[in-house]
Amino acid sequence: MVAPEDLPDESSVAAAALLVVEVASPTTRDLDWDRKLPANAQADVEWYWIVDRDAPTIFERGGDGVYVARQRIASGHQAETTGPVTILLDPGRLAR
């Protein structure tokens, strides 16, 4: 989880996360997509990544409170991520 930088006192203030990254597994796929995705949107998490080894998907919370897929990085391709944290991601290397 990545918290916003502008918290007045990080030790005592609860705030919505700026980014939550979910590392998916085949046994939790339905939970990640069907329950956690809408739950994080409802909790005002601005960015939500579901990282699986086939194709990580990066979502941004829209003005209507629903996530919009902003980027999907297919296995076999390398790309810089969109959003508040930029990393060079190669899904094919995640499975190694």
Characterise the protein shown here.
The chain is of the alpha+beta class and 96 residues long. The protein has one domain. The chain is built from two helices and six strands. The protein has helices spanning 29-42, 91-94, and strands spanning 19-23, 47-51, 57-61, 67-72, 79-80, 88-89. It has a four-stranded mixed beta sheet with strand order 1-2-3-4, covered by helices on one side. The protein has a two-stranded antiparallel sheet with strand order 5-6. α1 (29-42) links the parallel β1 (19-23) and β2. The two termini are 24 Å apart.
**First-to-last CA distance:** 24 Å
Overall SS class: alpha+beta
* Number of DSSP E strands: 6
| Major beta sheet, strand line-up | 1-2-3-4
Tell me the number of helical segments per DSSP (H or I, 4 or more residues long): 2
What attributes characterize this protein structure?
96 residues, alpha+beta, 4-stranded mixed β-sheet, 2 helices
Topology, element by element:
Blueprint: E1 19-23, H1 29-42, E2 47-51, E3 57-61, E4 67-72, E5 79-80, E6 88-89, H2 91-94
Please outline what is shown here:
With 96 residues, this protein is α+β, with helices and mostly antiparallel strands. It contains 2 helices and 6 strands.
